[in-house]
Amino acid sequence: MTDWEAMRARHSVRAYLEKPIPADIRQELDAFAETCNRESGLHISVQYDDPAGFDSRLAHYGSFRNVANYIVLAGKKEGDFDFRCGYCGEKLVLQAQKLGLNTCWAALTFNKKRVRELVPEGESLCMAIALGYGEDQGRQHRSKDTAKVSELAGPAPDWFRQGLEAALLAPTAVNQQKFCFGMEGENPTARVRGLGTYTRVDLGIAALHFELGSGKKVKIKE
Ligand SMILES: Cc1cc2nc3c(=O)[nH]c(=O)nc-3n(C[C@H](O)[C@H](O)[C@H](O)COP(=O)(O)O)c2cc1C
C-alpha cells in the first residue's frame, strides 16, 4: 500500500473485533515506533491486549467498543511537543493502516488514569490512539474546500494542490481542520488558522500528510 492509498483508506474506527494483533505485526509496529522515537525524541509505545486503556465511561460515551490495543503518545514536554506528537503519531497510524489495522485518535475519550500509569516520571502524556481490527473501515469525513486551507492568492503548483488534498484527508480533533498552507519562495509553510483545542497536534498530522502528498518538506510558522 502506498502512502496515498493509506491516507485515502484511513478513517477513524471506534468499534473493534476481538481479534488479537499477530506477533509479526507487533514486531513491525514496535520497530517503527522505536525509529520514530529516535528521530523525534518522543516516547511513543504500543500497548497490546490491555482493554483497561479504553475502559472508561468517557470511552463508551465516545462510542469506543472492544479497544484492546492502543498507541501512547508521551515524552518530555519541551519545544514543539504537541506538533511532534501529531506528526509522529500519524506516521504510526499510516503504518498501521498499511499493516491492515484501523485506528482512532483520542484526546479525551480514553481511560487517562490507566494510561498515565504507563508514562514514566518526568514525562507528559499527550494522548492515545486506539488500534486494532475494525468492525468496519469507517467512512470519509466531510471536508473544507481547498481554498479555505490555502493562503496562496494566485494559481498553485501541482505539488501544492496535491499537498492540500492530502492534508484534507488528515484526521483532526472534532474534524475542525484549523490549519492552512502557504509558500515562502519555493517552499511550503503551515500554520494554525482559527481557535480550537489540540490545533498544534492537528497541525503536526496535517503537515505530515501535506509532505507525503507533495513530496516537499513543510516549514512550520507560529
Ligand atoms: C488530535 C485529535 C483528537 C481526537 N480526539 C478524539 C476523541 O477524544 N474521541 C473521539 O471519538 N475521536 C477523536 N478524534 C477523532 C476525530 O473525531 C476524527 O479524526 C475526525 O472526526 C475526522 O474523521 P476521520 O478520522 O474519520 O477522518 C480525534 C482526532 C484528532 C486528530
Strand and helix layout:
Elements: H1 3-9, H2 23-40, E1 43-47, H3 57-61, E2 69-75, H4 81-98, E3 102-106, H5 112-116, E4 124-132, H6 158-168, E5 179-184, E6 187-192, H7 199-214, E7 219-220
Parallel strand pairs: 6-7
Antiparallel strand pairs: 1-2, 2-4, 3-4, 5-6
Flavin mononucleotide (FMN) binds next to β3 and α7.
Residue runs with pLDDT of under 50 for 5 or more positions = none
Mean pLDDT: 96
Q: What oligomeric state best describes the polypeptide chains here?
A: single chain
- The CATH topology label of the largest domain is NADH Oxidase
The assigned CATH architecture of the largest domain is 3-Layer(aba) Sandwich
Order of helices and strands: HHEHEHEHEHEEHE
Strand content bin? 15-25%
Class based on secondary structure composition and strand pairing: alpha+beta
- Rounded to an integer, what's the Rg over CA atoms? 17 Å
The residue fraction in helices comes out at 25-40%
The small molecules bound here are: flavin mononucleotide
**Gap between N and C termini:** 34 Å
Q: In CATH's first tier, which class of the largest domain applies?
A: Alpha Beta
CATH homology superfamily name of the largest domain: NADH Oxidase
Tell me the number of strands: 7
